[in-house]
């Protein structure tokens, strides 16, 4: 007889990133474009919670969430810092730290996803090196596996410019109030599929370093 699990797996720790990572990853969706409230995974309980009402007109351009068993720590931050210094986007003495969260991911699809708190399988095609108050906060851009429109896209360079511009605008504005001058977030660069793979691998390593001894 099949054993029945009475308890739901924790979306961050109890679900795997997937056997084909970093080419194909599992994604836990927290937020969809129609949400007027920003939801976020409660990291202790694994329950989706209300983070805050959306005060301004900046809504997610696609289903948005996190990649299980990833963590933006020292290795992920070092990768962003190295690239930023090589491209002279930050000063030689500036340090970047991780934001201590799972790796964020946006999933492009032509389908309407009515709500979050679901799992998806997606193909990373690139990402944004987002610096949020000195913290590495990479945003992986992906496409829903087997999507009838987006699944043929393999790299962010193949996206229509208007879609990429919409994504960039969202992440630059979703934390910024209308009466503030200084930007909260800064996109250092937009990168393609191969660099996205590196970011995912570094976040997997950060997760292992942070949690391997504590997760059963």
Automatic annotation (TrEMBL):
EC numbers: 3.6.1.1
Keyword DNA repair: no
Gene3D superfamilies (alphabetical): Inorganic pyrophosphatase (3.90.80.10)
EC supergroup of this enzyme: hydrolase
One GO BP: phosphate-containing compound metabolic process
Entry-linked Pfam families: Pyrophosphatase
InterPro entries cross-referenced by the UniProt entry: Pyrophosphatase (IPR008162), Pyrophosphatase_sf (IPR036649)
Annotated PROSITE patterns: PPASE
GO cellular component: cytoplasm
Cofactor dependency: Mg(2+)
GO molecular function, one term: inorganic diphosphate phosphatase activity
UniProt keyword terms in alphabetical order: Hydrolase, Magnesium, Metal-binding
PANTHER family: INORGANIC PYROPHOSPHATASE
Name of the featured protein: inorganic diphosphatase
Organism the protein comes from: Halonatronomonas betaini
Lineage: Bacteria, Bacillati, Bacillota, Clostridia, Halanaerobiales
């Amino acid at each position: 007889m099949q054993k029945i699990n009475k308890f739901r797996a924790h979306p961050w720790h109890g679900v795997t990133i997937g056997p084909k990572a970093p080419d194909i990853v599992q994604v836990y969706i927290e937020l969809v474009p129609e949400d007027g409230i920003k939801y976020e995974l409660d990291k202790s309980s694994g329950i989706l919670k209300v983070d805050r009402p959306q005060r301004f007109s900046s809504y997610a351009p696609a289903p948005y969430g996190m990649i299980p068993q990833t963590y933006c720590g020292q290795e992920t931050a070092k990768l962003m810092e190295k690239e930023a210094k090589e491209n002279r986007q930050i000063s030689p003495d500036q340090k970047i730290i991780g934001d201590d969260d799972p790796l964020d991911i946006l999933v492009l699809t032509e389908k309407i996803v009515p709500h979050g708190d679901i799992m998806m399988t997606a193909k990373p095609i690139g990402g944004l090196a987002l610096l949020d108050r000195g913290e590495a906060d990479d945003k992986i851009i992906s496409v829903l596996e087997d999507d009838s429109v987006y699944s043929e896209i393999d790299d962010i360079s193949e996206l229509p410019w208007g879609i990429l511009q919409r994504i960039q605008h969202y992440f630059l504005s979703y934390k910024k109030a209308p009466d503030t001058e200084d930007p909260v977030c800064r996109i250092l660069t937009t990168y393609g599929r191969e660099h996205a793979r590196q970011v995912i691998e570094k976040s997997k390593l950060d997760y292992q370093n942070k949690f391997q001894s504590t997760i059963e």
